[in-house]
Amino acid sequence: MQPEKPRSNIWFLLPIFLGLIGGIIAYFVLRNDDPKKAKNCLYLGIVLAIIGIFLNILILAQIPGIEEGFNVNI
User: Fold this and answer.
1) Could you report the per-residue pLDDT of 7-63, keeping only the tens digit for each?
2) Nearest CA-CA partner of 47 in 11, 25, 22, 10
3) What is the pTM of this model?
4) Inside any domain, residue 74
């Protein structure tokens, strides 16, 4: 097994900007060199994806439903 090489903290920007996909990419790139940072990037991507889904649900709950007909005459 190879010795662990510390990688830059800039890798955390990938899951911040790309969410879950960025976390997965960072995990597969870093898993051999810095496994702890790889797992943390993956966890960050998962958490940010869950927060994004939760916020989308909250925003969608605030939008009033479209009424039938919605005042359009054809």
Assistant:
1) 899 999 999 999 999 999 999 999 999 999 999 999 999 999 999 999 999 988 887
2) 22
3) 0.78
4) no
Chain center to CA of 16: 7
Helix (H) or strand (E) holding 58: helix 35-62
Burial class from Cβ neighbours inside 10 Å (0-12, 13-18, 19+) for residue 19 reads buried
Write the DSSP symbol of residue 10.
Answer: G
23 contacts 41 by C-beta, under 8 angstroms: yes
Number of domains, the chain: 1
Report how far residue 27's alpha carbon sits from residue 16's, in angstroms, rounded to the nearest whole number: 13
Closest CA to 39 of 7, 3, 72: 7
Assess if residue 32 is contained within a domain.
Answer: yes
